[in-house]
Amino acid sequence: MEDLEALERDLLAAVAGAEDRDALEAVRVLALGKKGEITSRLKGLAEISPDARKATAQILNRLKDRLGQEIATRAEALAETALSARLAAEKIDVTLPARPEAEGRIHPVSHVVEEIVEIFAAMGFVVAQGPDIEDDFHNFTALNIPPEHPARQMHDTFYLPAQADGRRPLLRTHTSPVQIRSMQAAPPPYRLIAPGRTFRCDSDQTHTPMFHQVEGLVIARDIHMGHLKGVLRDFARAFFEIDGLKMRFRPSYFPFTEPSAEVDIGCRRRGDEIKIGEGDDWLEIAGCGMVHPKVLRHVGLDPDEWQGFAFGMGIDRVAMLKYGIPDLRDMFEPDLQWLQKFGFRPYDAPSLGRGLGR
Ligand code: PHE
Fold first, then answer.
1. Cut 0.85: pTM above it
2. Which domain holds residue 75?
3. Which atom of ligand 1 is nearest to the CA of 286?
């Protein structure tokens, strides 16, 4: 009997002292497992005298029940402590700011190209592309600028070394060769824009050797200059987000259009500052005209059947105007601070519905 009381004390103490589930399980095996203290004593009952057997069996069974209960209670307590510890460790401060803001910025030129595409796409235009490295035919001859034409000098062309056949590839001096490539690639009608890089050997405050233009071309059977004026007017009003923006078409000359015009928008100048949509001054934003019959013939179209208009606009220029960027040359410097200031957040995609600008 002494021995059983001591056993009970020891086992209960072991249960109370078990610090985690594994330790508690070890105590259970020690007491109630197949070869445990209580189990083996219960098995041993057969060997003791029938007189003592009943009393000992009662004590052992009570001890067995009590220990089972104590272990269950202890297990519950341990589980609760473990859960509280885990909750404390995994605590989240929901008042902290969410992820840090994305660092990268979209270059204003890329953003403005997307704005331009958005506006013309709404008028049913598609986007066309051509190579930066062009040949003489597409950049000049097909556009009615034959060799020795003075316009070739005006373009300050970058030439590449001559190829085996003697031809010299060049960096396109305007996006107009995409007119030719697009008309060669598919039958009319056409209603396309072609934004992209252009190159001229020229560098000062308002010129960089690489710059961007967007070309426009519309050819069908019934297109006239009224369509050209309407398209450019609607574009400028949408792009600058000014409803009554004034616009004028000044007679001009391009070898590949006839008649030709330069397009000005109304502005006010004060010192270096230019304010679009106010004042009595004018600012040139594009060249345009009705596609020259010779250009149409170069791509195999009959000018008596097909006609239309083309325009070319400087993208960097309108980007600077719209977003108050002071110096053209900064646009193409690898300057992260400048990009932080004038660039656009990656999720600020322009849309006519939600607004184009900032
Ligand atoms: N390609 C001309 C330029 O670079 C612009 C232009 C395009 C003019 C289409 C008329 C028609 O100056």
1. no
2. 2-90
3. 5
